[in-house]
Amino acid sequence: MTRVPLVGLVDWRLPGDHFDAVELVHDMGVEGLQLDLGGPGRGPWLDAPGTVDRLRDDCFRRGVRPLAVAGNTLNDIGLLVPPGGQEAVNVRRVLLRVLETAQALGAPLAFVPSFRRSEINDVHDLRRTAAVLSWAAREAAARGLLLANENALAAPDSRALVEAVAEPNFRLLLDTYNPRAYGVDVATLIEATHEWIAPQVHLKDGRDGVVSQELLGDGDGQVWEALTALEKAEVTCDALVLENDYRDGGIQRLAVDVRRTRDRTARADTSAALA
User: In this protein, which residues make up the domain named Xylose isomerase-like TIM barrel (predicted)?
Assistant: First the structure.
């Protein structure tokens, strides 16, 4: 990392709704928030009438930066649906809603995940995903946004995805735990893909491939080693975004994770200054 990043949270791992998340970010003394588009089983739609305007105002009043908008509902719909049909049209509509909401909130990044129904398991899946993301990246560029994809691919397939998308504003969203849960070495992944890693990184920890209630650094995710790898690769990181699960109201755990993240970045900044 070439600068001290701000600390952010994701609204889909916090108790309450979008508006509660803005208030909690402010109360925890962190700077930024990633928001999910929502959808069936995922909470209220972020782009419901009046919601974006109110959120933008709330963020401004509380000094909270909208960092990104995620389309997590695409894990349920599937980026891999065959082209040309109604399902493919629906995927594009959702992607446009993600992009338009990010633009309206003033967030610099939009991202979509590739898990569950969107998981990339073979060359066909990769090519289909790349075709959809290439179109979406062009739409994102027209709105002044970066587009990122979060996946669990190993380094060679991650590079193949970037090359297949072939758009300059396309990035890979790094999560410090998801690749490990799929048997991917995170340090190797960072070394191989560092030039395409999105400037916002998810910090997450767990045990035996499952995210439970492990504090950052207490699980088997090697969180701080991942940050060291990012620093070594000189990845530009604007935000470290905590994605442990606090939906049960575990605010004390959240406070500890925030403190640990700040302590770690402060030490790294001191070391860099002395080098």
Answer: 22-227
